[in-house]
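Extended Data, panel c. Modelled sequence:
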Amino acid sequence: MKIYCMSDIHGFLSEFEEALSIVEEHLVEPDSILLLLGDHIHGGSDSAGVLDRIIGLQKKYGKNKVVALIGNHEEMFLRGECSLERSPSMYSYDDVDDNGEDYADWIEDLPRIYRAGNTIFVHAGINEDCGEDWEWDYDMFTEKYPAQLGEIKGVKEKVVAGHVGTAEISGDPNFHGIYYDGASHYYIDGTVMESLEIPILMVDSTEDKYYRVTEGGIWEVQPYNEDD
């Protein structure tokens, strides 16, 4: 299966649309899905529009083809700690109202993790100190900070996550691409509020390979210090 991943859209609808223009055509393929790793809202000018767009994609292709995970900003919304920004949008659906109640219902149903092949997909990370018992620490899935690097002891799978910007992880304020540590972690939060881009990672779960996808093509992701 080919899993096209994005994370940390943060209400930047036009940047989300630009990324979708690259990957949406693949959703008609039987072995491809779109996986959104959380923090769909809060930061840009149209959080509600981003949610409308995701809900619309799920209506069109099905929730098994367009999978959205919950992030810490969605949890903040459920706790009443942030609101949904809205700009005039071409996307609106009769079963989603402006008072946020139906958004809350949709968010509450979002899964916390997704697993395929040799990969764990999650918004923030897993408790790597727990080894094979990592699934019991639910808070880590959306709240883990800082990002952890290196081989995960006791866990054979790799982890794909967002939450922490790759500029911060790499120590390079100009780097907003996909960060691979050469061992167990791929991080894909490109800090859209600074870069105005949403990186796309494609995971081939059958071949256990990981690719950066752009309008110009696809390239296998190399460890950060080896990536040109």
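The chain is about 25% helix and 20% strand. This feature is highlighted in the accompanying rendering.
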